[in-house]
Design brief:
The chain is built from 13 helices and 13 strands. It has three domains: 44 residues, no CATH class; 112 residues, 2-Layer Sandwich (Phosphorylase Kinase, domain 1), CATH 3.30.200; 212 residues, Transferase(Phosphotransferase) domain 1 (Transferase(Phosphotransferase), domain 1), CATH 1.10.510. The strands form four sheets. The protein has a six-stranded antiparallel β-sheet with strand order 3-4-5-6-8-7, covered by helices on one side. One of its GO terms (cellular component) is nucleoplasm.
Length: 430
C-alpha cells in the first residue's frame, strides 16, 4: 500500500494533524493503527512493530496482540474505487483467525523390508529380521545385531516410527527416567527380584525419515496371548501380573513420569521365561512432576482422548495431563477386562462421548460396575473390588499407597501358595 495514499485519507480524519508531519511520521502511530479497522496491516500496541494479521503474539517483544480488525471497504471521494463483490462489511467467517494452526501429526511409518540394516547413534548396526506388530505408535520388529559388539544370534526388539512421531516422546522417557543403572538401583532399594522396565540398548535415526529404539527381546504382548483363545486370565495369573505392573508404575511415578496408556498391547511376556513381565509402549508417557512439582489439573490443556479409548482414564479423556491415579485407573479397567471379559463401553468405542459418560457413571458405583461385568458368571474377587474403590477415590495429585494396593493381591496369592514373582500361571506358545 502507498504511504502517500494513506496520508491523503488520514488528512480528512481526526488524525490529520499527525499525518501532516514530515518524514518518518508517515507511518501511523501504533494506537491509531490498532484502533482503525480500515488498515490491512497490524501493529503491536506495546512496541509498535508491524505484524502479520494472523499473529497472536508479537515476534519482536512477545506481547499478546489484540484480535485482528475487520477489513472494511475503503471509499475514495476524489476517485471512485472499482466495483467489488460486496461493498458491505464482511461476515464473521471472513475475520482472520487468531489461533495458530495446529501442527499436523505425521502419518504412519511405512514398513522397511526384512534384512534392512539400521545404524544407531553409537555406531552399532541392527538387522531387521521380521515385522512383529504394527500399531498406532510405530512398528515392532524382531532384530539382530549386525555388529561385532553384540551376540549375533541374540534376539532384540526394534521399534520404528516416523522421525517426528510419538517415538520421540518415548526416547525422551528412556533417556531421562529409565537408564539401566537407575532401574538396577531401584530394584535393590525396594527388594524386588524383577522390574519390568524395558532395557533400551540403542537408538538412532534412519534415512532421515525414521527414528528407532532397540530393546533386549521383549517377547510377546499379553494381548496376542489372549487372542490365542485364552480370552480370560485365571485369578492367579492376573494378580501376579498386576503386582508386577504396580512395581513398574511405582518406579515410573517416582521418576516424574506416568505411562499414560496401560493396555495388554503394551504388556510383554517372555515365552521362554514366564517370570518376566515387561511394561513397554511409552509413546504417551507424560512428565507429570517436572522438577518435583506436580502439574496442575487443567482440563483441555492437552489433546483429549489420547491413548487406547477402551482403557484410558477420565483425566486423559478430558484433556488433562494424566497423573498417577490415571495409570492406576487404566490398570483397573484392564484387570476387570482380563477377569470378566467385558467392559460396559467396549462395544461403543466409536462413540467416545458415550464411553466417557459410562466411565463417569461407574466411577462412583464400583459395585454396580462389577455386577454388570461379571453377570454372576464368576465370583467377583474381593481384591478387585477393593482396588477399584481405592483407586477411584484418589485425588488428582494424591500419591497412591502402592504397597497397600499390592497387598490386596499378594494376600490371595499367598492363600494359593504362590508368589507374584513366580512363573506366571499361563499356558502360551512361543
Amino acid at each position: 500500500m502507498s504511504g502517500r495514499g494513506r496520508r491523503g485519507r488520514r488528512r480528512r480524519g481526526p488524525a490529520g494533524a499527525a499525518a501532516e508531519q514530515p518524514g518518518p511520521a508517515a507511518a501511523p502511530e501504533p494506537e491509531a493503527a490498532c484502533a482503525s479497522p480500515r488498515w490491512v496491516s497490524r501493529f503491536c500496541p506495546q512496541c509498535g512493530r508491524g505484524v502479520e494479521p494472523a499473529f497472536r503474539f508479537c515476534p519482536a517483544c512477545g506481547g499478546r496482540l489484540p484480535p485482528p480488525p475487520l477489513q472494511e471497504e475503503e471509499t475514495e471521494q476524489t476517485a471512485p474505487a472499482p466495483p467489488r463483490a460486496s461493498p458491505a462489511r464482511p461476515s464473521a467467517p471472513a475475520r482472520p483467525s487468531c489461533r495458530s494452526p495446529r501442527k499436523a501429526r505425521p502419518g504412519p511409518a511405512v514398513p522397511l523390508p526384512a534384512e534392512s540394516v539400521l545404524t544407531d547413534q553409537g555406531g552399532r548396526q541392527w538387522r531387521l529380521v521380521r515385522l512383529l506388530d504394527q500399531g498406532g505408535c510405530g512398528l515392532m520388529y524382531e532384530a539382530q545385531s549386525a555388529s561385532g559388539t553384540c551376540p549375533q544370534k541374540q534376539r532384540y526388539s526394534l521399534k520404528l516410527d516416523v522421525k517426528d512421531g510419538r517415538i520421540y516422546n518415548e526416547q525422551n522417557f528412556f533417556q531421562r527416567a529409565a537408564k539401566a543403572g537407575t532401574v538396577e538401583k531401584w530394584k535393590k532399594w525396594h527388594f524386588v527380584p524383577f522390574l519390568g522396565i524395558p532395557n533400551c540398548v540403542g537408538f538412532g535415526l534412519h534415512a532421515d525419515s525414521y527414528r528407532f529404539l532397540v530393546f533386549s527381546d521383549l517377547g510377546r504382548t499379553l494381548q496376542s496371548v489372549l487372542n490365542d483363545g485364552l480370552h480370560l486370565l485365571r485369578e492367579k495369573a492376573a494378580f501376579q501380573i498386576v503386582v508386577r505392573l504396580l512395581d513398574c508404575l511405582e518406579y515410573i511415578h517416582e521418576n516424574e513420569y506416568v505411562h499414560g496408556n496401560i493396555t495388554a498391547e503394551n504388556i510383554y511376556l517372555d515365552p521362554a521365561d514366564l517370570t518376566q513381565v515387561t511394561l513397554a509402549g511409552y509413546c504417551y508417557a507424560f512428565r507429570y512432576c517436572p522438577g518435583g512439582k506436580h502439574v496442575a489439573q487443567r482440563e483441555g490443556s492437552r489433546t483429549p482422548h489420547e491413548g487406547t479409548i477402551e482403557f484410558i482414564s477420565l483425566d486423559s479423556h478430558k484433556g488433562a495431563g494424566p497423573s498417577r491415579r490415571s495409570d492406576l485407573e487404566s490398570l483397573g479397567y484392564c484387570l476387570l477386562k482380563w477377569l470378566s471379559g467385558f467392559l460396559p463401553w467396549s462395544e461403543e468405542l466409536d462413540k467416545v462421548e458415550t464411553v466417557v459418560e459410562k466411565k463417569e457413571k461407574y466411577k462412583g458405583d464400583v459395585k454396580c460396575l462389577l455386577r454388570l461385568c461379571f453377570r454372576q458368571k464368576r465370583p467377583i474377587p474381593d481384591a478387585l473390588q477393593s482396588y477399584l474403590q481405592q483407586v477411584m477415590a484418589l485425588e488428582y495429585e494424591e500419591k497412591p499407597d502402592y504397597e497397600a494396593l499390592r497387598q490386596l493381591f499378594k494376600k490371595p496369592l499367598e492363600k494359593m501358595k504362590a508368589s507374584a514373582y513366580d512363573s506366571l500361571d499361563i499356558k502360551m506358545v512361543p
